[in-house]
């Protein structure tokens, strides 16, 4: 694998990161719209990418051409403060409501929900134009965690979606597999803070993020303190 440090675009501030990242995203998404008539994007939740989503909501003049899904989700209702779908709907307030698709369709049956998701996300399997990833301090990305057997499967399987287990509440998670994510035309990873940078650069640890980097050599890494 290429030296991780050489893969990182470092910015002097979070504001500078957001500006450059959003510019990169919009250029790539506009190219997909021009080619396909729409752009399909899978987004991560969390506080790190949130400001970029808010900026995209303001700067993107083709929100009605975006099909927005999730990289991963907690198995909870949209009303929960932990819901990634709730975050996306809040950030992309100018997008049509139908443009955003969550990952929770059956709160009574965890396994059946996965079956429904496979049907609802078929178009992302056929074509995904952009994936935006984050990373936790433990080296997880999407909802693919260290020391979790279903997460290990998610790194190498040809399945598209899996239920995994997080070490913190809410523990039941839903994730796109790495195979699905790596097939996107454009892939970005956003991280902030020196602690996460140290984990990212410690590739001898062989955490999920390091497997992701190995399998996604075209990934664009955006970093600021």
Helix content, binned percent: 40-55%
Count the beta strands.
9
End-to-end distance, in Å? 24 Å
Major sheet description: 6 strands, parallel
Order of helix and strand elements from N to C terminus: HEHEHEEHHHEHEEHEHHE
Helix run count: 10
Morphology: globular
- Work out the strand percent: 15-25%
Average pLDDT for all residues: 96
Structural class: alpha/beta
Within the largest sheet, what's the order of strands?
A: 1-9-8-5-2-3
Low-confidence segments:
none
Q: Radius of gyration in whole Å, from Cα?
A: 16 Å
Describe the structure.
The chain is of the alpha/beta class. Helix content is 40%, strand content 19%. The chain has ten helices and nine strands. It has helices at 4-7, 14-36, 50-59, 84-91, 110-120, 122-126, 149-156, 178-182, 194-201, 208-215, and strands at residues 8-11, 39-43, 66-70, 72-74, 130-133, 161-165, 172-176, 186-192, 220-224. The strands form two sheets. The chain has a six-stranded parallel sheet, with helices on both faces. Strand 6 and strand 7 form a beta hairpin. Helix 2 packs across helix 3. The longest helix has 23 residues, at 14-36. The two termini are 24 Å apart.
């Amino acid at each position: 694998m290429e030296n991780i440090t050489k893969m990182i675009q470092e910015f002097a501030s979070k504001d500078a990161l957001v500006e450059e990242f959003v510019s990169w995203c919009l250029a790539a998404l506009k190219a997909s719209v021009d080619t396909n008539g729409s752009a399909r994007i899978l987004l991560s939740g969390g506080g790190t990418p949130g400001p970029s989503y808010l900026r995209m909501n303001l700067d993107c003049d083709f929100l009605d051409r975006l099909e927005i899904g999730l990289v991963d989700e907690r198995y909870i209702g949209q009303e929960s403060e932990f819901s990634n779908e709730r975050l996306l709907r809040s950030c992309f307030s100018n997008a049509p409501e139908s443009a955003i698709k969550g990952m929770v369709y059956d709160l009574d049956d965890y396994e059946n929900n996965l079956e429904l998701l496979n049907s609802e996300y078929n178009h992302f399997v056929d074509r995904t134009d952009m994936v935006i990833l984050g990373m936790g301090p433990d080296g997880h990305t999407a909802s693919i965690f260290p020391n979790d057997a279903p997460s290990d499967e998610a790194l190498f399987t040809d399945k598209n979606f899996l239920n995994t287990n997080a070490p913190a509440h809410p523990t039941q998670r839903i994730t796109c597999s790495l195979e699905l994510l790596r097939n996107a035309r454009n892939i970005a990873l956003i991280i902030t803070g020196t602690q996460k940078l140290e984990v990212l650069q410690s590739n001898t640890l062989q955490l999920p993020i390091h497997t992701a980097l190995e399998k996604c050599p075209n990934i664009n890494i955006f970093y600021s303190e």
